[in-house]
Amino acid sequence: MTTMTVAIPTYNRSARLVAQLDRLAPDVVAEGGRCRVLVSDNCSTDDTADALARWVAAHPEVPITVRRNDANLGVMRNIAACARAADAEFVWILGDDDELPPGTLRRLLGLLEAHPDLTLLSVNYSMHDVAEDIEMTPARMMLRDDVVKTGPSPLTASDDRGVALVKMMGFMSGQVYRTTEIRRAIDAWPAFDNLDVQIFWSGFCAAQGTTLVKAEPFLRYDCGTNALAKPRVWYRTHVIDNAWVFLRLRRIGYPVDLCRSGILSAVDTRHELRHTLSGVLRWPLLGLKAFAVLAFTAAAVHLPGRAGAERAAIASAA
After folding, report:
1. Domain boundaries, the chain
2. Is the confidence at residue 228, as pLDDT, over 80?
3. Would you say domain 4-227 falls under CATH 3.90.550.10?
4. How far apart are alpha carbons 124 and 118 in whole angstroms?
5. pTM reported for the whole predicted model
6. Cα separations (Å) of 113 from 108, 128, 259?
């Protein structure tokens, strides 16, 4: 069986997609049959289909599958489609715009083969502001050392600042999943309208077995090139979607304190509180909904009973 599928969801970004495939191609070929590429075109209306056809024809040496959705499924459904179409033991869902240095693929494959029991491999990443062309941070997770969690249990570790690692696992390209587990995660909570749902999917996979979090950055996240660049979308995701995610993580056994902290991260500092309050002025209905969701989820996270039952139900599906 192939070790890893590199799955790239894309929509109307043909130039970025081709550039990503150009970066990947030498490493994919060098690794022989250990990995293959999958592109899921979310019914693009630009020249993506033609650009892909030309690229595939020009690179017969690259094992690649191209699938095109009959309609635009939305961002998260297309990501889920990548996970479900993967045909390898692990799947790396890679953004079409996230830059990775040469050799990244070999490093990931080496880690997967050195740790064959992993259910989640999470790698650190730098953050780059595309509009300003500046580095925002050299490493999203402030870690001196790698973190390893063995056995089926929630990932409760934090980075050196005290930020829960699972909180920072919404970056799609930073996660490599065991394919069977990400499919189970999606089935456990197919909340495709929640743009932070990948935090739950990552937390679910981490809870199923051994997890490795790498301290060293492996790639670069370009900020400002996706839907979260829109202030209203970012606000909804950062406050509302995030709160539901951490309530759901509580339902599969993550600790109350971790989940409550995750829910309230939108108001836990003066800066965050000011920003969240500003949403009430900019988008009154959305802002009021945000505070209602925060109040509800912060209270509901303490309710007993469901976590154990849901964890048992998930385990029985294995």
Report:
1. 4-227, 231-316
2. no
3. yes
4. 17
5. 0.92
6. 9, 30, 32
Burial of 79 (0-12, 13-18, 19+ CB in 10 A): buried
Q: How many residues does the chain have?
A: 318
Q: What pLDDT is stored for residue 174 in this prediction? A: 96
> Do the beta carbons of residue 94 and residue 8 sit within 8 Å?
yes
Q: Does 309 have pLDDT greater than 70?
A: no
User: DSSP code of 317?
Assistant: T
Burial of residue 157 (number of CB atoms within 10 Å: 0-12, 13-18, 19+): middle
The amino acid sitting at 108 is: L
Per residue in 61-109, pLDDT (tens digit) is: 999 999 999 999 999 999 999 999 999 999 999 999 888 889 999 999 9
DSSP assignment of 62-117 equals S-EEEEE-SS---HHHHHHHHHHH--SSEEEE--TT-B--TTHHHHHHHHHHH-TT
